[in-house]
Amino acid sequence: MERSRRPLAIIFVIIAIALLAGAGLLALALPNDERDMLYQIGSLDDLVEGRLDGDTTIKAVLEHGDVGLGTFNALNGEMIVIDGRCYRAGADGSVIEVPASELTPFAQVSRFDEDGSVTIEGRMNMSEVETLLDASLPSPTVFYLLRVDGTFSVTVRSVPAQVHPYPPLEDVIANQTVFRYENVPGTLIGLWSPAGSSGLSSAGYHFHFISDDRTKGGHVLEMELEDLEVRWDSTSRYEVDLR
C-alpha cells in the first residue's frame, strides 16, 4: 500500500522555496496553476547513496505530469515519460510500457506547455546543443523541460535491476550497457536543472531518448542532431516528495 506523502511534501515545498529563494533560484513568482510545476519523487542523493527501493507508483507519478525522466525500483532501467505514458528502457536494449503499479524511487515530471524554442541549424553534437541552449534559455534560475522530435543518432545507456545490499550509483554506472543508434526517428526528453538544485536533482542537462516505434531508448551519453527544433517548458514551481 502506498503511504500518504502530502504532509511531508507540503513541509518540504515550504523549506525548498525558502532555500531556493535565498539562493536566487526563484526568479519568477510561484503560480497557482499546477501545470507550471516540476514534480519530483526522491532525490539524486538517494540514488547516489544506494537508496533504490521505490515506494511510489507510476500511477501516482503520472497524476503530476505527462513528460519527464526517472528510474524504477532497484534502478531497473531508464524511465521515459512521454505524452502521458511511461516506458522503461532496459539494460537488454528492450523498451516496454510499464504498468501503473510499477514503483519508482526517483522521477521528475511536469505537464508540457511550450514556452519557447530554438532551431538547430546544421549538424550539432551534444556539447554544441547544450551551448546553444545555454544562450537561448531565458533564465538560469528555473527548471526547463526540453523536447526534441525528429531523427537522431544517439548513444544511450541503461542499467539492470540491482540486488540488496544496493551498491552506490557510481558502481552501478560502471557496469552500464551502452547502445548506439543511427538515424532513428524519435524524441529526446530533457531536463535542465539550476546549479542550486544539485543533490536534489542533477544540475545542468539530463536527456533520455525513445524511438517513435518505442523499441529503442535510454539515458543519452552522446547525440547528433541536424536541423531540428528544441522546444522548452519553463517550470518556476518545484515540488519534491522526499522518501
Beta-strand segment tally: 16
Looking at the structure, what is the overall shape? globular
> What is the CATH class designation of the largest domain?
Alpha Beta
Q: Strands of the biggest beta sheet: in what spatial order?
A: 6-5-4-3-8-1-16
Rg, nearest Å: 17 Å
Q: What profile does the largest beta sheet have?
A: 7 strands, mixed
CATH homologous superfamily (4th level) name of the largest domain: Hypothetical protein, similar to alpha- acetolactate decarboxylase, domain 2
At the fold tier of CATH, the topology name of the largest domain is: 60s Ribosomal Protein L30, Chain: A
Give start-end ranges of low-pLDDT stretches: 1-32
What is the first-to-last residue Cα distance?
A: 15 Å
Write the topology of this structure.
Elements: H1 6-22, E1 37-41, H2 44-48, E2 56-57, H3 58-62, E3 67-71, E4 78-82, E5 85-89, E6 95-97, E7 103-104, E8 107-110, E9 116-119, E10 123-125, H4 126-136, E11 143-158, H5 169-173, E12 177-193, E13 204-211, E14 217-226, E15 229-235, E16 237-241
Parallel strand pairs: 1-16
Antiparallel strand pairs: 1-8, 2-7, 3-4, 3-8, 4-5, 5-6, 9-15, 10-14, 11-12, 11-14, 11-15, 12-13, 13-14
